[in-house]
Specification:
690 residues; alpha/beta; 7-stranded mixed β-sheet; 27 strands; 5-stranded parallel β-sheet
């Protein structure tokens, strides 16, 4: 440790805010972190998880928890056996090639992660669609962001959040829906607090079934019934129409489809909306007025409408009608012209550090590179020509849950899982585990060796983790940041993209003999250059950006050739990404929850994030200090419900759904509405019984 300390600029590996981090290291050990004051996402701030990043790299924890060499077992009941990298790669490639030959390309599925770097994502996408010839590649981002993607595309024409972080300080009303920002995006919530201190007249509205820490800070909390988001938006639009608070000129000049929606919301009276949502009629009127940006007298202020910025996340997205939830909120922006100007617009908050980057490279079952549409023959031909393959497959692949169901049914025989833990995190975990057990070949690339999914794998390939990787990520505001390695990976761990390319080149010998490799890349920069070329002329064009520019500073897309800088705010000219440049209103009928309460199951169960934990806790769960805020799992119930069930605080209860059961302590919480329950999403088999 006599070497002088080094400092490396990188980004955090948790939520989609994309915070810049300065990593302090000596030799091959990370010794500290601090927020990067020059990074425009966080200006030096870090949350509790970001502040402890370096602690997860402690050598003792690395030895105890990390996957450090390739491991194999023929039978899942057998102990792991160490294997050298070369024979491991040979065997995996041979196994995939054999299944491909015997059962076809669609017998293989790849399940990847929003925590991969963009370059890793690009390699996996090219491997699946260009080499194997299957669209069976999907990502855990399917669970958190696909509804936002579809909502943007249906209404505005492209998967492109139109607002930016600067708009938080410029908005007159902040509308937070389905997000506990104070815990899930804490650095971004600090901006909310700053904005409210600087402009005391700014309003904060929070839509959430729970009175979360974010809701407790609001001027108005709309404590809706779970699953009533579309009904709420329709009711607000009904009020805006009735009171004359919409913007008819904007609607006529820049949109299509309003008449059908107008007819839809005629019956969404305040009384009916209050019945459906549980929100008081007076609060609906206040919320509609604030969102529309009119004054207390119901008129548009002389200087123009007050501006509304909506910020939303999984409470809208993770629903049987997640796309309709997103589109219905965007309908309100379009009806009032609340878009394309500073401080106004619909802004989806990304749940993972690089869910956006995965969408950019087409790393999902229904997408192609650079936001191209898999269903469009011209788009498929473009991608095939750029990659140098004869064709890319036309049939949509299996989305995340469908992929595992297909494996449980025997149609998919090999699963390659990267940087995610589906045995814990996917819905219907019993089905997921059946899928893993039935597969002939399960390959897991993972930094941590004892995840729930590792229990079901045949191969465990050790992966580089935070502080050990090189590439880029894109955050919620479309800002691309460099990720730099501060130290080499421990043991024999390797970058995910490198492992994928090594297997791909072995597969090429069987699937493309004698043809040039599709994977000639020497480093992350060369992969990124390939990706950059695929964006030319697309909505996310970054052909004006290069690696050297990214080395100097993070930049937003689009950044087309000839531009001096990226565009931080979209649709300022009110010309949208649809063929005719007009935004579309979406006429969606409200639907009840897929599983409403009944006599046998009288509670609605909701979930969400804790302040100090992340996803399945494979990293944060190794740090004792991060358990100080929430030391154990619990089910939270309204105090009246606890009393009615004759339970006291800490009593252990069995919680049953249609798919399974858990045993955990009960906790009284005034944040809950009666007949609703909450269990945080993070806890797995290590902490839960059942």
């Amino acid at each position: 440790m006599n070497e002088p300390p080094r400092e490396t600029r990188s980004t955090c590996c948790y939520c989609g805010v994309g915070c810049g981090v300065i990593v302090e290291s000596r030799g091959d050990r990370i010794t500290g972190v601090r927020g990067d004051p020059a990074h425009p996402a966080n200006f030096g701030r870090l949350c509790s998880k970001g502040q402890t990043l370096h602690l997860s790299t402690d050598p003792a924890l690395v030895q105890a928890a990390r996957a450090l060499q390739p491991m194999h077992r023929r039978d899942r009941r057998d102990p792991w056996q160490p294997v050298a990298w070369e024979p491991a790669l040979d065997a995996i490639a041979a196994g995939l090639a054999d299944i491909h030959a015997a059962h076809g390309a669609d017998a293989i599925g790849l399940y990847v992660s929003g925590q991969l770097l963009t370059e890793d994502y690009y390699v996996f996408n090219k491997l699946a669609k260009g080499l194997l010839g299957t669209n069976n590649i999907d990502t855990n981002s399917r669970l958190c962001m696909s509804s936002a993607v579809a909502g943007y595309k249906q209404t505005l024409g492209a998967d492109a959040p139109p607002a930016c972080y600067e708009d938080i300080a410029l908005a007159d009303t902040l509308w937070v829906s389905g997000s506990n920002m104070a815990w899930a995006h804490p650095v971004l919530f600090r901006r909310v607090e700053d904005a409210r201190r600087a402009r005391p007249a700014q309003k904060l509205v929070v839509v959430d079934p729970r009175r979360t820490e974010t809701a407790a800070a609001a001027d108005l909390h709309l404590q809706i019934q779970p699953g009533s988001d579309v009904a709420l938006c329709h009711g607000l639009l009904h009020l805006m129409l009735w009171e004359g608070w919409i913007d008819p000129a904007f609607i006529a000049a820049h949109t299509r489809g309003f008449e059908a929606l107008r007819q839809r919301v005629r019956e969404a009276t305040p009384r009916e909306t209050s019945r459906r949502t549980g929100v008081a009629e007076a609060d609906l009127v206040t919320a509609a007025r604030w969102f529309a940006g009119v004054g207390d007298d119901g008129r548009v202020p002389e200087g123009g409408r007050r501006r509304t910025l909506s910020l939303y996340c999984q409470g809208l997205n993770q629903s049987r009608q997640g796309t309709a939830n997103n589109a219905s909120l965007i309908n309100l922006h379009l009806a009032c012209g609340q878009i394309g100007q500073p401080g106004a617009g619909p802004f989806s908050l990304t749940g993972q550090p690089n869910a956006m980057g995965g969408r950019e490279v087409g790393g999902m079952a229904t997408l192609l590179s650079a936001h191209r549409d898999l269903a469009d023959p011209a788009h498929r031909a473009e991608v095939a020509a750029m990659w140098g393959v004869d064709a890319v497959p036309a049939t949509p692949g299996k989305a995340a849950v469908e992929m595992f169901q297909a494996a449980a049914d025997g149609a998919i025989r090999a699963l390659w899982i990267v940087c995610t833990n589906p045995a814990q995190s996917l819905p219907d975990s019993a089905m997921v585990r059946r899928a893993l057990e039935r597969c002939e070949l399960v390959v897991l690339q993972e930094a941590y060796r004892d995840t729930a999914t590792a229990q079901h794998a045949h191969w465990l390939l050790p992966a580089a983790s935070w502080g050990e990787k090189d590439g880029t990520v894109t955050n919620s505001e479309r800002r691309i940041s460099r990720v730099r390695a501060a130290v080499p990976p421990p043991g024999q761990a390797r970058a995910d993209g490198r492992s994928a390319a090594d297997i791909a080149r072995r597969l090429e010998a069987r699937l493309r003999p004698g043809r040039p490799t599709l994977f000639p890349h020497a480093d992350a920069e060369s992969v990124w250059n390939d990706h950059r070329e695929t964006t030319r002329g697309r909505d996310l064009d970054i052909t004006g950006l290069d690696w050297a520019r990214l080395e100097r500073s993070p930049e937003c897309w689009p950044f087309p050739s000839g531009a001096a800088q990226g565009r931080v705010r979209l649709y300022a000219d009110h010309r949208f990404a649809t063929p005719d440049g007009r935004a579309r209103f979406v006429d969606a009928a409200p639907r009840p929850p897929a599983e409403p309460r009944d006599a046998q199951r009288p509670f609605s169960l909701t979930t969400g994030r804790l302040r100090d934990q992340w996803h399945g806790m494979s990293r944060t769960g190794t740090l004792p200090r991060l358990f100080g805020h929430a030391p154990e799992p619990a089910i939270e119930l309204h105090p009246q419900d606890l009393s009615r069930l004759r339970l006291t605080e800490g009593d252990v209860v069995r919680v049953r759904s249609r798919r399974g059961a858990l045993v955990l302590p009960a906790r009284a919480s005034a944040a809950m509405a009666p007949t609703q329950a909450f269990i945080a999403m993070h806890w797995g088999d290590e902490f839960l019984a059942g």
